[in-house]
Amino acid sequence: MATYYDYGGGGNQQSGGSAGGGGGYYGGSGFAQQQQQQQPGAGSYGGYGNPQQWQQQPDQMQQQTGGYSNQEQQGYPGQPQQQQNMWNPAAVASFAAAAGAMNNDAMLDMAKQGATSFIQSRTAQMIPGLESGMLMLRNYFAVDNNYVKSKIQKVLFPFRSNHWKRLQKNPPQPDYALPNADENAPDLYLPAMSLITYVLLCALCYGTAKHFDPEVIPDVTTKCFVTQVLEVLVIRVGFHLMQAEIPILDLFSYTGYKYVGLSINMFVGLLLGHLGYGHRAYYITFLWTASAISYFMLKTMANNIPVVTAATGPKREVMVVAFAGSQFATMWFVSQTKFL
């Protein structure tokens, strides 16, 4: 079978079998049709069989391919596909800066609003005593930065203070100001935070001595809490014998300030423990903090116990000194100096 070239229609095509007549690009049949099917872009991009013509018509090809954009065409094989970066460090940094900018006042306002909405809801009213209890606790957590700072200074350096009377809203009535308006008002925020700090420092002390046990945290917490509860009950009995009234939460607040001194003692002991003076440094600091807490309790109880008490009860002066001395004894009892 002969093979020849046909120059019909001005095109240069190779055909097999019989010669194709007429014009057009592929006038023949057989092998020419197979080449037509194998041409890149034939029948897909407007019938441009010549690659040069396909490259010269970018606009028309974009219209016939549905107008894919560059980002959509990146998904085709043979082209690099860029993955979208879902982690935005700038957004994370801005969120962290915004979170760090929130001070304690803003956080307390949010907590107060949440507690108020919970109290006003029917859920709090369904539990007997929960509504009144939350309203009572809210007054003991109404603190701000200035109060916490001045209270810590007064607990650690009570000898510098000359004012111990609580501020009253209505002088004839026993309606006292909140802690954020009076540094002499009792609170539960500072005792709670200092207790947590002291427990964590005790756990750190055990850990640095390679004797840490997960039971250390609940053991120290239980020992401190039970000791404080017994102390509050004894003081409450003393007030009852003198026929003097005092809220029990006030006693938990006054007896809870000892944890501020205990935290400082443990911190100093851990700090100097690497030099071999941990045990000695703890007790040197203990002498100061225990004396300061005892003097603080002495002045506080002297201004809370009425001058005139029951004639058959214990003497007021004896009870004030006993309450102050109890702080020294309980601080020594709950101290953790075994591994300093």
UniProtKB/TrEMBL annotation:
InterPro entries: Yif1_fam. Residues 1-85 are annotated as: Disordered. It is a multi-pass membrane protein. The chain crosses the membrane at residues 281-298, 318-335. GO terms for cellular component: COPII-coated ER to Golgi transport vesicle; endoplasmic reticulum membrane; endoplasmic reticulum-Golgi intermediate compartment; Golgi membrane. Residues 31-42, 52-64, 71-85 have a biased composition (Low complexity). Keywords: Endoplasmic reticulum, Golgi apparatus, Membrane, Protein transport, Transmembrane, Transmembrane helix, Transport. One of its GO terms (biological process) is endoplasmic reticulum to Golgi vesicle-mediated transport. Residues 7-30 have a biased composition (Gly residues). Pfam families: YIF1. Has a role in transport between endoplasmic reticulum and Golgi. Belongs to the YIF1 family. This is Protein YIF1. It comes from Seminavis robusta.
